[in-house]
Design goal:
Blueprint (H helix, E strand, L loop, with lengths): L1 E6 L15 E6 L2 E5 L5 H10 L9 E3 L5 H4 L2 H7 L3 E5 L10 E4 L3 E4 L2 E3 L10 E5 L2 E6 L6 H8 L5 E7 L14 E5 L5 H7 L12 E3 L3
Parallel strand pairs: 3-4, 4-5, 5-6, 10-11, 11-12
Antiparallel strand pairs: 1-2, 1-13, 2-3, 7-8, 8-9, 9-10
Helix pairs in contact: 1-3
The structure holds zinc ion (2 copies).
């Protein structure tokens, strides 16, 4: 499976635009899902183009939560490719879109799970691989500990990718093999220093290739 960060607060390349927000393309188990859409649709589409990602190849969108830095690009993306949108149940999806509201944990495709909407705000996605679950998060508003424990019902988490906000319970990362704390993560440096062997630098253009 492959995860490509297409929208993030930082950028890995000069031709890719950094902006506060998050989005990544998840290619796993025969599916191509866009996780969140960043803050600005034109910037999202420009970054995708620069990364050689055809928006028409995206099958579905998974929205973690309805903060503008994750949903701002949704309308523009749907105007290009009106795919199905999985969104947390407390949110109102764009009118006319093919939206699936998720409240409880569920399997959206074989081996691809939503934790369900946690703390009334945010869902995360977990993908089953031979090494364990790859968990992708938006801002981790419900708390990283809570998200990982919700994901654990589907398997053993082995990778965590996305925004961790003010998360500081670093020992929770101990059992993981890969951590890519990016977007709104305030304590990236502490995580990098504590877990240099697990740490992967985020930013637009980061590609994480993991065994299926
Ligand atoms: Zn947020
Ligand atoms: Zn955010």
């Amino acid at each position: 499976m492959k995860i490509t960060i297409v929208y993030d607060n930082t950028s890995r390349r000069k031709d890719l635009e950094a902006d506060w927000g998050f989005s990544c393309l998840i290619e796993a188990r025969g599916h191509r899902l866009l996780f969140d859409t960043g803050a600005d649709g034109r910037r999202l589409l420009r970054n995708m183009q620069a990364l050689g990602i055809d928006p028409m190849g995206v099958e579905e969108i998974f929205i973690s939560h309805y903060h503008l830095d994750h949903t701002g690009g949704l309308q523009d993306f749907l105007a290009v490719n009106p795919v199905r949108v999985y969104c947390p149940a407390s949110c109102r999806p764009p009118a006319g879109s093919d939206a699936v509201a998720i409240s409880a944990a569920m399997e959206i495709h074989p081996g691809i799970y939503s934790t369900g909407e946690l703390a009334g705000i945010e869902q995360s996605i977990a993908i089953d691989t031979e090494k364990g679950l790859v968990v992708v998060v938006g801002c981790s508003h419900p708390g990283v500990t809570e998200i990982l424990s919700a994901a654990s019902t589907f398997g053993k988490p082995y990778a965590l990718i996305g925004g961790l906000h003010g998360f500081r319970e670093f020992q929770v990362l101990e059992p993981l093999e890969l951590v890519c704390p990016t977007h709104c993560t305030r304590h990236k440096e502490e995580i990098r220093i504590l877990y240099p062997g697990k740490y992967v630098e985020g930013g637009v253009g980061t590609v994480i290739d993991l065994p299926d």
